[in-house]
Structures are given as C-alpha cells and as structure tokens.
Amino acid sequence: MRKLRFSILLLALVAAVPMLAQSRQVCLETTEGNILLTLYDDTPKHRDNFLRLTNEQFYDSLLFHRVIKGFMIQGGDPDSRRAEPGVMLGEGSTDYTVEGEFFDSEGRLLHPHQRGALAMAREGDRSNPERRSSGCQFYIVWGRTYATTQLKTIGEKVEAQTDHRVTMTPELMDLYRTVGGAPHLDGQYTVFGEVTEGLDVVERIQQALTDDYDRPVNDIRILRAYQSQ
C-alpha cells in the first residue's frame, strides 16, 4: 500500500510540472566539417521556419557567402547554390519575412549574441523598422572578447537603439568579457539557437580568405542540412 501511495504521489508531481518542449537539433554538413545547431523553443517562429526549410532541403548546396573574421559567418542565400566565382551574394531570399523574437513576456532579452549564437539576418532599420528577420539567411557569431570599458560604451549604444529594453547587465558583461561575441547586435537581430558541436569548424570558416564582398575566395558550402533528432 505504501508503494502504491508513493506511485500516485510521483504521478501527481509529474503532472504538476509543465511539459518542456524538446529542443530541436540541425546538423550542417559543410566542406569544412560538421556544425551541430540546437534551436531554442522560446523562439518558435524562427525554430519552426528553420526546421521547415531544413526538411525541405532548402539549405543543401548553399554557400557561406559572407564571412567576416572576428565577427560571423553567414549563409542561406538561395542565389549562392550555382553562383559563379567572384559574384556578390546576399540579396537572395524567400517571399516572406519572420517576426522578430527578441524579448520574453516580461520584456527581458531572450538570448545574447555570444560566441556560437545562431541568428537570422535581416534588412536594415530604414527599410525594415520592425526588424523582421530574413526568411532564410542566417549567421553564426564568432565575435571577440571585450574589456569592461568597451562594454559600457557598447551597452549605452545598444540601450539607445532598443528604446532602453536591453541593458548591459553584470551577467552580460561577464559573458562578453570571457566567452565573447557580438554585443552590439543584442535585441536587434533574433538569436534562435546555438552551436553545440563544431565550434572549431566555425572558427576555421571565419578565418577564410575573402574578397571585397566578404565572400570566401574558395567556396565554403553546406553540403547537406538535416534534422538530427
């Protein structure tokens, strides 16, 4: 009888805890190695869009068409699939954009641009004041570490650019001092995942020799993208 009561109590406790959605993972097989991405469940619009495109094989054979050393690597332009060498890329897109997902229900920043962050590219503020994301182009942050004085200056700019919704908290300062990233983008571009394996591949790609358009001189291609669980 005691064992039965324990089982009933355990079931009641389980029922009282909200079910957490399982994280989704996408593997990018590239010419430089594999990158495993974990997508966040608190950015569902971006998560579901990225998974849908992945399952439709949209990203297969696309290039990392924009690479800036010490900053980020960018891919997802459909025009890059058959692009001739030296051609400027970055204008290709889908026929839709995705609503930005920057803050939680209490107005707090969901995810920072730390090293390894996965985010969606977008048009600039002038043509895109709502800061809606591209339907397909994404980037992975490499960034760098910052000194405290630098972070204070960046924090003031970001706070102004986000109508005081993003502040450089002690936690963020510690993150960017130690892990590194791109703090000037916080609250303005949607971070919806992170690299959980293959950060060494990202490091290698961001060191690639590039042309005047920031396109790698030697093509770096996503051979295949697939959902790994």
Walk me through what this model shows:
The protein has an 8-stranded antiparallel beta sheet. The chain has a two-stranded antiparallel sheet with strand order 5-7. It has helices spanning 2-16, 44-55, 148-161, 170-178, 199-206, and strands spanning 24-30, 33-39, 64-68, 72-75, 97-98, 117-120, 133-134, 138-141, 191-197, 222-227. The model is unreliable at 1-22 (pLDDT under 50). The chain is built from 5 helices and 10 strands; from the N terminus they run H-E-E-H-E-E-E-E-E-E-H-H-E-H-E. It is an alpha+beta fold and 229 residues long. It is 25% helix and 21% strand. A hairpin with a 2-residue loop joins strand 1 and strand 2. It is globular and about 45 Å long.
Task: Reconstruct the topology from this structure.
Elements: H1 2-16, E1 24-30, E2 33-39, H2 44-55, E3 64-68, E4 72-75, E5 97-98, E6 117-120, E7 133-134, E8 138-141, H3 148-161, H4 170-178, E9 191-197, H5 199-206, E10 222-227
Antiparallel strand pairs: 1-2, 1-10, 2-9, 3-4, 4-8, 5-7, 6-8, 6-9
